[in-house]
Amino acid sequence: MVEFVKNFIDLLFGDMMSNFDVRMLVMWAIGGILIFLAIKKEMEPTLLLPMGFGAILVNLPISGAITQVINGEVQEGALSVLFDAGIANELFPLILFIGIGAMIDFGPLLSNPKLMIFGAAAQFGIFFTLCLASMFFPINDAASIAIIGAADGPTSIVVANKLNSEYLGAIMVAAYSYMALVPIIQPPVIKLLTTKKERMIRMPYTQTEVKKITRILFPIVITVVAGLVAPASVSLVGFLMFGNLIRECGVLNSLSETAQKVLANLITIFLGITIATKMHYESFLAPDTLLILGLGLFAFIFDTAGGVMFAKLLNIFLPKGKKINPMIGAAGISAFPMSGRIVHKMGLAEDPQNFLLMHSIGVNVSGQIASVIAGGLILNFFM
Amino acid sequence: MLQNLFISFMAIAFNPGAFIDNLYYMGVGMLAIIFVMGVLIGITTLLNKFFSRKKNDKDDK
């Protein structure tokens, strides 16, 4: 009887026990934390939940979800197939950009185009982190790590792929996790760099009508200019602006709604769980990953600081009454619309009558454009 | 496991000179992005002015 039970257990769990590694438990814990953050804290649940579940899925002993060699035979896993079909060739992030483009209303930016300069200033973290990361990694990996600061998952994936970075998995995880953690990362940095008086600066908003023709021409112009300056990023900018053109043209409302909701949701489901294929314990639990997570955090912090400090610099030259609330500079990172909302909330916390939303959202969408252009410049430098 | 992690940490190359070498890319990158966004500000401002003026002209007539 004892022999029978032993054989039965061997039959059921033999393969599992021989392929088990204690590091898998660590990855299950990481997956659990991501799921907890998604459900309990509602932090970017559309991405963190699939990533957390995927992290558990790919770290089961001889998981059939990922491609592996068993007894000398290659057995394809569904998630690895999805990765090759949608992420390795950059298809998922680009299609997602159509949905994001269709979601963005450039109105606040078009009515005050000067806000675009903050989008540029807030890319400082990317270039500073490039220098930092180059001390530890080859330049193609350093550039891919730096682009985590773009706070833009699709751009991170495209840049890391095009530069053949071996750290694609860690970069994707860092980019999406930090995007979810924007409400935690940005406020202390903003508070550290600004005084209460500065945070209370009111910025009146005068709504100006933006003509439909301007809204239609804007995505086309952006695509042409960005394409001329950074041809390598033209697919990113092009897909983003194509989505926006669908939204603004006024004759494709059904397509616009589909892009914003069904298409974006569908791609997000697959993107999140497919990213997890790069969260296998053998590659993920390495000191390089910890370093990449640390550098990614630096990039976010310095992006925020770049935007805030640039606004403070402008304030030196602006007359009284025309001063800018430096907090809006922090919205120049492209985590849309979270960053814009955080700045607005921080403004309200200091002064319940200070409504910064339209300014901060304007800066936030300019950050979306600037981060894609920054990605293109990085590709121009190192491809 | 921790020992292996520590050993791999120590194996990471550290080249502080690369920071200085790549400051060039930081400078050029920031200048380029400010330039491009400046061009976009200019074009958007012109678009706004051009199309709002046309409408005003029509109104005048």
List keywords for this structure.
heterodimer, A: 383 residues, mainly alpha, 21 helices, B: 61 residues, 3 helices, 87% helix, 0% strand
Please list the strands of the largest sheet of chain A in the order they lie side by side: 1-2
- Which chain pair shows the most residues in contact? A-B, 49 and 36 residues
The value of Rg of chain A in angstroms is 23 Å
Q: Total number of helical segments of chain A? A: 21
* Percent range for β-strand residues of chain B: under 5%
Rg of chain B, please?
A: 26 Å
Low-confidence stretches of chain A: none
| Percent helix of chain B | over 70%
Can you describe this structure?
The complex is a heterodimer of chains A (383) and B (61). Chain A is mainly alpha-helical. Chain A has helices spanning 2-18, 22-39, 45-58, 78-87, 91-103, 107-111, 116-121, 124-133, 139-146, 153-162, 168-180, 182-193, 196-199, 212-229, 234-248, 253-275, 281-284, 287-317, 327-330, 338-350, 357-382; strands at residues 68-70, 73-75. In chain A, helix 4 crosses helix 16, helix 9 (139-146) packs antiparallel against helix 10 and helix 12 crosses helix 20 (338-350). Chain A is globular, with a radius of gyration of 23 Å. Chain B has 61 residues and is mainly alpha-helical. Helices cover 87% and strands 0% of the residues of chain B. Chain B contains 3 helices and no strands. Chain B is elongated and about 70 Å long. Mean pLDDT of chain B is 80; it is low at 55-61. Chain A binds chain B through residues 22-23, 109-111, 113-114, 116-117, 119-121, 123-124, 126-128, 130-132, 134-136, 139, 142, 210-211, 213-214, 217-218, 221-222, 225-226, 229, 285-288, 291, 366, 369-370, 373-374, 377-378, 381, and chain B through 1, 5, 8-9, 12-16, 18-19, 21-23, 25-26, 28-30, 32-34, 36-41, 43-45, 47-48, 51-52, 55.
